[in-house]
Every structure is written in C-alpha cells, then in structure tokens.
Amino acid sequence: MKNLTNLRHLELDIKRQISSMPKEFGKLTNLQTLSAFIVGKEKGQCIEELKDMRFLHGSICIVNLENVTNMREAVAAKLEQKPCLEGLELQWNEFKDGLEEQQILAGLQPHNRIKWLTITGYGGFMFPSWLGNPTFCRIERILLQNCRYCKVFPSLGQLPMLKHLYVEEMHDLTRVDDESQGPNSFPSLQSLTFHNLQNLQQWKDLKAGDMPNLTHLTVIDCPSLNFLPSLHYLTRLESLEISQCPKLQCLPAEGLPDSLECLIIIDCSVLKERCRVHEGEDWNKIQSIPKVEIDYEDIFW
C-alpha cells in the first residue's frame, strides 16, 4: 500500500480488521480520511509513520500505544501539526511503566483545534498539562476510560467550550477537588458522568459560579463516596442520577437546585431510607421535584 501515494480516503474499519499497519504506511502523505492507526513494533509500523500526514481530517483512533517506547517517538508523530483533525482517540491495551506513559501522553499533544478527545487504558499517574490548557478553545467532549492508576483529577475546568465530560474506571482516584479547577470552572459543561470510580471518597469545593450550564449529572458505581458537594449552586441542573453508591450518607445539606426536574436513585440503601415519603430526613429536599424514581419505582405523594 505504500505505493498508493495519491490515496485520499481509506474508509475501512481497520481497528477491527487488521492487527498492524502495512509497512511504510507513512508514505501515503495525501491521506485525508483514516479512521485508525494501529501502532506496531517493527520498523515501518511505528507511530512515527504519522508524521507527514498533515492533511488528515475528521477523527482518528490510534491503537496499541503500549508499543510506543518513549516520548521521542510520540513527539515524532507530530499530532500537533495536524490542524484539520477534529477528533482523537488514544488507546492503550496494556499497562506498562506509569512514568513512561506520562511522558508518552505528554508527547502526543494534538493540535488545539480538536473538538473531542478520548483516552482509554492510560497507565500514568496524572495527566499532562496540555489536557486542560485553555488554548484548546474548541474541545467540546472528553472521555476518560480505564485510566485506573491516575491519582489526580485532571484540571479541565478552564476549557471554555467543554460541554460533555465522562470519567470511568479511574480506580486510584480518591477525591475530586473543584478548588483545583480555578474560579468559575467548567463554564460550558452540560453533562458530567462519574462511572465506576471504586475509591472515590470525596467530591468537594463546588462553589457559586462553577458549572453554570450543567443540566445532567450522573454518579454511578462509586461505592466509597460518602458525600456530594453543594449541588444547589448548579442553577440549571435538570437531571440527577445517583446509582450504586451505598456509602452515600445523605443529599447535600443545602438541598437541591430548584431547576431539578428528575431525580433517580438506584441501589443506595441509605439515601432510599432518607427519602421515604413524608418520613425520611431528606424528604423535604425532594418533595418539590416533578419526577422522583427510587429503585425503578416512581414516587408519588
């Protein structure tokens, strides 16, 4: 395939159909459409083959990043010099040395015009500074999956256009501290999901001016979470789902925002008891919400 130098579009689900790229694939410098690039170990199949593909459009998934051995190789892919890419997925399938992976992810910094970013299977202990840099002024969606050794929640609060944030399987994360996100954080965020954060114990310091446009908040399978932050500051929140959080002691003391239209609570035994109709200690916090569902049953009063 290296001889097809005028090829513009390769529309093939190569992530599922081949195990590595053809050798010297980087000679296809006129490519505009490439759905995925599988990083190999042999010469001519490394991530450096991407370096001269400056016309890539749309989105690309870079798979098998465990085969990138150091930061130099990552930088050589020149992702920062691909301004027409709108979406980027970075995928590891094996966990290796955490410090090395931190350097590799730092070297995979894309152009700041991307609109969505997915990072899957990353084994570093923290995310690079470029991830939350406000110069990424077009990014609207970030998905962080199976970054299980990350101990620090990424500082994404100053991304001006971030609308959707999904965080899943970050098992070494014990706290989310909104104070570290800066003033008036997440100005455009509309939906936030925490899913399967096994050791998350605290989410705190949410304050007035943070997440002013958040409408959907979902917290699922966070079995160590004890308390929620002050959600009454989220003046546009419409939907709140709390599921499989058995240690959650109560709804926030300040109550829930008046804008809330739907509250769903599933497999949270303490909360269920506190929200009993007319009798529970948190009943006064939910009685004005139009739709309340607890353990798949609509609550009427």
Please give a structural write-up.
The protein is mainly beta and 301 residues long. The protein contains five helices and 16 strands. The strands form three sheets. The protein has a twelve-stranded mixed β-sheet. The chain has a two-stranded parallel ribbon with strand order 1-2. It has a two-stranded parallel sheet with strand order 9-11. The longest helix has 10 residues, at 98-107. The radius of gyration is 22 Å and the shape is elongated. 34% of the residues are buried. The mean pLDDT is 94.
Global structural class: mainly beta
Q: What is the overall number of helices? A: 5
Strands of the largest sheet, in order across it? 3-4-5-6-7-8-10-12-13-14-15-16
Distance between the termini: 68 Å
Shape: elongated
Q: Which spans have pLDDT < 50 for at least 5 consecutive residues?
A: none
User: What does the largest sheet look like?
Assistant: 12 strands, mixed
Helical amount: under 10%
What is Rg? Answer: 22 Å
The beta-strand count equals 16
Helix and strand sequence: EHEEEHEHEEEEEEEEEHHEE
Q: What's the average pLDDT?
A: 94
Strand content range: 15-25%
Topology:
Blueprint: E1 9-10, H1 14-17, E2 33-34, E3 36-38, E4 58-63, H2 71-76, E5 85-91, H3 98-107, E6 116-120, E7 141-145, E8 164-168, E9 175-177, E10 191-195, E11 202-204, E12 216-220, E13 239-243, E14 262-266, H4 269-274, H5 283-286, E15 291-294, E16 297-298
Parallel strand pairs: 1-2, 3-4, 4-5, 5-6, 6-7, 7-8, 8-10, 9-11, 10-12, 12-13, 13-14, 14-15
Antiparallel strand pairs: 15-16
